[in-house]
């Protein structure tokens, strides 16, 4: 093909991409149907989200999202791994169409994105040395002991809970992923690694390391729930997602998807976006 024709083709493709990105929010659902997939952000933190070596995306969040999107006429999901702190900026920059990663609903996040109704709920946990030698049961215990360093996801809830409890910034170590956190704990570079209970249990169980133990739930830390998060402006897509999510909850299929991962359907169905975004 002549260079001139290639340039025309490239210009046309760029125009399509530009028009799609400017499409009115109400057409976002139509745009995703035509695209054939929804681009989701995940963290690869089982059992919330998981990507196998051959690229298969699973975990409770993507499995629920895949089923809901399928019922909306969007055939599949394509996942990108992201740090929690980068998920909302990525959504706002249109790098993702949704976040289905266990991004817990909290007032400050509810102000930045539009959430679906609740999907995955969990308490917080600590992984630490067997015997809990520094007797750490809460984020306040960590703040009170100047010798303790905590590892937590960057931009994540556990990082925020530690800082809010008064742990100085230089004792809150950003950990990129579960395996790194485990290694840092085993090497003594951190004294405690914090994630939600199901994530910590999955990691420590898989590690089969008798020198580690889990403290759960963390005393004084709330039970959080996530929802699928959408960009402000995509409320119509969020509303359509909620209709199908409610159908799954009503039929019992929602429980069939998430409970094998250890999540409680009743916990998600006992609360609401309104309550969680109000910090209740
Ligand atoms: O929403 C969050 O910030 C937290 N959610 C999960 C599923 N893991 C850690 C993260 O900090």
Largest sheet: 5 strands, mixed
Q: Given the structure, what is the number of helices? A: 13
CATH-scheme architecture of the largest domain? 3-Layer(aba) Sandwich
Mean pLDDT: 94
Q: Are any ligands bound, and if so which?
A: ligand 6CS
CATH H-level name of the largest domain... which superfamily?
Periplasmic binding protein-like II
* End-to-end gap: 61 Å
Into which percent range does the helicity of residues fall? 40-55%
Description:
The chain has helices at 3-22, 28-35, 60-71, 84-92, 107-110, 139-144, 157-164, 178-186, 197-207, 235-251, 253-258, 265-269, 273-277, and strands spanning 37-42, 50-51, 57-58, 76-81, 98-99, 113-115, 121-122, 124-129, 150-152, 172-174, 192-196, 212-215, 224-225, 229-231. It is an alpha/beta fold and 280 residues long. It folds into 2 domains: 2-121 and 225-272, 3-Layer(aba) Sandwich (D-Maltodextrin-Binding Protein, domain 2); 124-215, Periplasmic binding protein-like II (D-Maltodextrin-Binding Protein, domain 2, 3-Layer(aba) Sandwich). A 5-stranded mixed sheet has the order 10-9-11-8-12, with helices on both faces. A 3-stranded parallel sheet has the order 4-1-5, with helices on both faces. Helix 3 (60-71) packs across helix 10. The chain starts with a helix and ends with a helix. Bound molecules: ligand 6CS. Residues 45, 48, 84, 102-104, 153, 156-158, 195-196, 199 line the site of ligand 6CS.
